[in-house]
Amino acid sequence: MTDIIITQTAPVLVAIDISKARDEVLIAIADKKRCRRLTVLNQLDDFNRLITSLACYGRPVRVAFEATGNYHRALAYHLAAAGFELKLVSSVALARTREALHNSWDKNDPKDAQVILHMMEIGNEQFYHAPLVRGTNDIQELSKTHDIVSKSKTELWHRVVAPSFNPLSAAVFS
């Protein structure tokens, strides 16, 4: 009988806490006890440096991050273009998990990266679809524009109509 040997390489887990100027990166490798910590500036040179260092492991790479405004888009695009698997962590789930793990609401970027890594290890992550890679960027931008226009319309409506509407005077005239 033939022995079948299947070797599975555990993916390198990369947790990224994204902010405006710099991103805190925590890299966990399955057979290592300690995690590698990096700070990546939101610049193309640093993105390429991160991609090169992740590719050097020779294993599949799974990256998870919390979407914060639009700051995650550039890094996510470059990571997706490099062929890494991208995952999204819910900001609400991240906050609740951070409170449960650290028994505190206090937050900082390295702590958030640790919590994101923990959420990756337990499988509490979502799929991320890069808008530019998937071709949905135009739809997303139209949706954001519609949202801004709708909010502005409502705000204008409240400024024009709400001050002149008095419920007491409406009862008198009806």
TrEMBL record:
Pfam families: DEDD_Tnp_IS110. GO terms for biological process: DNA transposition. GO terms for molecular function: DNA binding; transposase activity. Residues 14-155 form the Transposase IS110-like N-terminal domain. InterPro entries: Transp_IS110-like_N (IPR002525), Transpos_IS110 (IPR047650). This is IS110-family mobile element-associated protein. It comes from Octadecabacter antarcticus 307.
